Amino acid sequence: MLFNLFKKYLLFFFGILLLGFNVNAQDGFRLLNKSDLKESIKFKLVNNLIIVPLEINGKELSFILDTGVNKTIIFNLSENDSIGLLNTEKILLRGLGGGDAVEAILSKNNNLKIKNLIGYNESVYVILKDFFDLSSKMGTTIHGIIGYNLLRNFVVKINYRTKRIHFYNPKKYQIKKCRRCEILPIQFHLKKPYIDVNIQLDTVGYKLTKVKMLVDSGGSDAIWLFENSKKNIKTPKLFFNDILGEGLSGTIYGKRSRIPKLKIGKFEIEEPTVSFLDSASTRNARTFKQRNGSIGGSVLKRFKVWLDYRNRKIMLKKNVSFKDGFNYNMSGLDVVYNGKQLVREKTTNKILDSGNRDINKNNTISFVTNFFYKFKPSYKIKTVILNSPAGKAGLKAGDIILKINRKPAYSFTLSEIFYKFQEKNNKKISITIERNELVKTYKFRLRKRI
């Protein structure tokens, strides 16, 4: 599994097809007070993905804001997260990946709320099995995804730098003209937004190819391209095979590489990483014949983004992240959260006298040592890429990580661990693991492959 700049590469993209069911049209969200100009929401940015708090029938959950989906989907509910879902019936869903359709529940007439944004009579799809295990992969609880119905009735401004979204009343707000911005028309297919951009696929000749791309804030990668969706969309000579992630219908396979340039209007982005997906994994997504791929969070986060679904346009203004490089995991390890562990920590303090002095009458200093226990995160290796530096060193799936470069693994966040695997080519990495109750240390160097 690969990783984006500072973030884990997590393929979380749905090409949802409902098999045999029709759902009545929904009105989408609106401002609770129709006279209000806007509502602002603070979000978390994890692995290039936007996480917002969403109430469903009064229960607050954490959802990914995903422009690439047209349904509100729940895929991770525990007993503690139980909510009352209304008017339920069983259905089948199919998404990316080559497997069969999966069982789900369609629940109608639910009330959804984010601060003063209200959605009445909303349909929610509940996947009965958590195929994605996103919470462990991201190190934070994720319950589901929401997209079109939240965005459709507003002019939406997403500021990745301040981690804030503004939802504007479209009757009282218009996107202002901006000389440093680029406005592009949006084409909708199955309520998903697509834009036309240009890509340079070969360093010879500098020819640009026009492609139609899904605007996909729910994908943390930079670019996906569907191989052979145009005659010249082929994997470059320099690439490596990879498991790109898990889709609703199974594992998603592809090839990781780079292209010389992505051109969005007047903005030119140099050497972005690209995942070339095979036809089997993207069979359902390719039902829209004009589509050539997706633009994900690793590109979108380099802009301030305005979405105006009613007027079918998107505006982009580059931010200070625009020229950041596109890095990736060079270790070959897919590390996930493994729950909490009880860790004993030690503190040593001076013993002070009544005058708050630390030296007693014998001119000695006394110390007292205390031990206390805290719950700390635990991490394990989920996947090791074949022939990767970590794989060649001997690390295996299922290994519990105890130390990274001699520091306890629990002292890192998951994002910090991902960053260590992206820092620089040839960097030394030492990982101490527990396997079958035995503790072992493995060493390797990060290796740039593209």
What topology does this entry show?
Blueprint: E1 3-4, E2 7-8, E3 17-18, E4 30-31, E5 38-42, E6 44-46, E7 49-56, E8 59-65, E9 73-74, E10 88-94, E11 102-114, E12 117-127, H1 134-138, E13 144-146, H2 148-151, E14 155-159, E15 164-168, E16 181-185, E17 187-189, E18 192-200, E19 208-215, E20 223-226, E21 240-247, E22 250-258, E23 261-264, E24 267-270, E25 273-277, E26 293-295, H3 297-300, E27 303-308, E28 313-318, E29 333-350, E30 367-384, H4 389-393, E31 400-404, E32 407-408, H5 414-420, E33 428-435, E34 438-445
Parallel strand pairs: 8-13, 9-12, 19-26, 20-25
Antiparallel strand pairs: 1-2, 3-10, 4-12, 5-15, 6-7, 7-8, 7-11, 9-13, 10-11, 11-12, 14-15, 14-27, 16-28, 17-18, 18-19, 18-23, 20-26, 21-22, 22-25, 23-24, 27-28, 29-30, 30-31, 31-32, 31-33, 33-34
Shape type:
globular
In CATH terms, the superfamily of the largest domain is: Acid Proteases
Topology-level CATH name of the largest domain:
Cathepsin D, subunit A, domain 1
CATH class label of the largest domain: Mainly Beta
Decide which structural class fits the backbone.
mainly beta
pLDDT < 50 runs, ≥5 residues = 1-18
Instruction: Please indicate the percent range of residues in DSSP E strands (runs of 2 or more).
Output: over 45%
Say how many strands there are: 34
- Percent in helix: under 10%
- Ends distance: 15 Å
How many individual domains? Answer: 3
User: Helix tally?
Assistant: 5
Radius of gyration (CA) equals: 24 Å
Mean pLDDT: 84
Biggest sheet, in brief?
Answer: 10 strands, mixed
CATH architecture level-2 label of the largest domain: Beta Barrel
